Amino acid sequence: MEPAPGPQEKYQLITRNLQEVLGEDKLMAILKERELKIYWGTATTGKPHVAYFVPMSKIADFLKAGCEVTILFADLHAYLDNMKAPWELLELRTRYYENVIKAVLESIGVPLEKLKFVRGTDYQLSKEYTLDVYRLSSMVTQHDAKKAGAEVVKEVEHPLLSGLLYPSLQALDEEYLKVDAQFGGVDQRKIFTFAEKYLPSLGYAKRVHLMNPMVPGLTGSKMSSSEEDSKIDLLDRKEDVKKKLKKAFCEPGNVENNGVLSFIKHVLFPLKSEFVVLREEKWGGNKTYTAYEALEKDFAEQVVHPGDLKNSVEVALNKLLDPIREKFNSPELKKLTNAAYPDPSKAKPAEKGTKNSEPENVVPSRLDIRVGKVISVEKHPDADSLYVEKIDVGEPEPRTVVSGLVQFVPKEQLQDRLVVLLCNLKPQKMRGVESQGMVLCACSLGEPRLVEPLDPPAGCCAGERVYVEGYEGGHPDEELKPKKKVFEKLQADFRVSEDCVAQWKQRNFLTKLGRVSCKSLKGGSIS
């Protein structure tokens, strides 16, 4: 039997692979006296994806260090964050999260009996907690509340009061769960410093805060539940895993913003302490890496090919996902999954005159709209009014797109700019050149006709998903059938708002970084 780790060994286990620790001295002082009490919370919103293996592997470290660990299913937070989880689905989504998080923990060998599982509504609706929310709201400025939630609470054009309450509730959770420390991603840092500032004002102790790095998604940006192509769901089929990895950004020799390489670093290596690159004998055969740095060096020097890297990740990932898929193959959990996350494309049409009265099946989530970067622009060889563009949308090869922008946008203004591209129209030939997408543009309603390509928010990456507010879920059609006229029906309600934001039925077009807009054509149409 191995001897129990001492305070220094516990400290190393608790802090390894973290990006930042706030309160290191306090952490060490507690470890010298007793076991650390720590909690990790997750809002029960979109379906958990494979990046959840990162906090789960840290929870395994906490348990090895003897910590008392609480997992909070933050159901009330999910509702307060711009109703990411509608009230009528809150209970179902919380049950889904409980089952899937436990399945993830079991798949990496974490003993569930050593963990405490709590729901937010178990204590957040109590008289004492509610009174503390009021007490805190009398001290916290609007500026501080908005700043604290900036990285976590969903950004919308007209923020709700509930989003300002979110940081206060998360701060109070530390006191009501009776913990010494809170663990989360580095995107939670502003909420953690908010808690350190305001909890002492109520007479409560300042806690230790432990932060994991954020895991880049497959498109090179943050792995997000609302960005479909950036992440792999825990219940994705093997063919879906293959398809998403095939589309993932993984440029030869490029180790920056490489979602596949980052996934190996932050998920697979911490869990297995090694990674095997699978290759045919003629390309050198299999190679086992026991240090991530060696793998990154070989990839940078193009010793490891992107195709081999993707295939190897696919094999390793499916080994982790197989027991989770098997558990959720039961009729009971299949029913729970479908009830917690109903397919919006199968929703019944709302009653006449209600808020969501769009025709059945015609919803914006069926459109595959992405951020694209224009790599090259040339005049069409047989049509003076057409450009032929090569546009990077996060796939292995750029798409060829034909657009009638010659009269409206100079060539040099298109070159290297970010655009918004509809990617699942059926490809069609335009004067002999096949076009594989449509650049979405704002158009003036009067004469003279003016056209401006829509602008994604600054900082977006090629391939990032563009969605309509409230329709983050659902899977886009593989290809829109021309006879169904899905795009045409939705396009009829595309408009540019008075502050130049692209909208569908007054709901904003968004990426994870904010609103899609145009330069000046307020009140215009979009085509």
TrEMBL record:
Chief localisation class: cytoplasm
Known EC number: 6.1.1.1
TRNA-binding domain residues: 363-467
GO annotation, biological process: response to stress; tyrosyl-tRNA aminoacylation
Enzyme class, first EC level, given as a word: ligase
Gene encoding the protein: Yars
Keyword set includes tRNA-binding: yes
GO cellular component, one term: nucleus
Catalytic function, reaction form: tRNA(Tyr) + L-tyrosine + ATP = L-tyrosyl-tRNA(Tyr) + AMP + diphosphate + H(+)
Compositionally biased spans, kind Basic and acidic residues: 345-358
Keyword Ligase part of the UniProt annotation: yes
Family membership noted in the UniProt record: Belongs to the class-I aminoacyl-tRNA synthetase family.
CDD domains for this protein: tRNA_bind_EMAP-II_like, TyrRS_core
UniProt GO MF annotations: ATP binding; tRNA binding; tyrosine-tRNA ligase activity
Protein name: Tyrosine--tRNA ligase
Compartment(s): Cytoplasm; Nucleus
Region (Disordered): 335-362
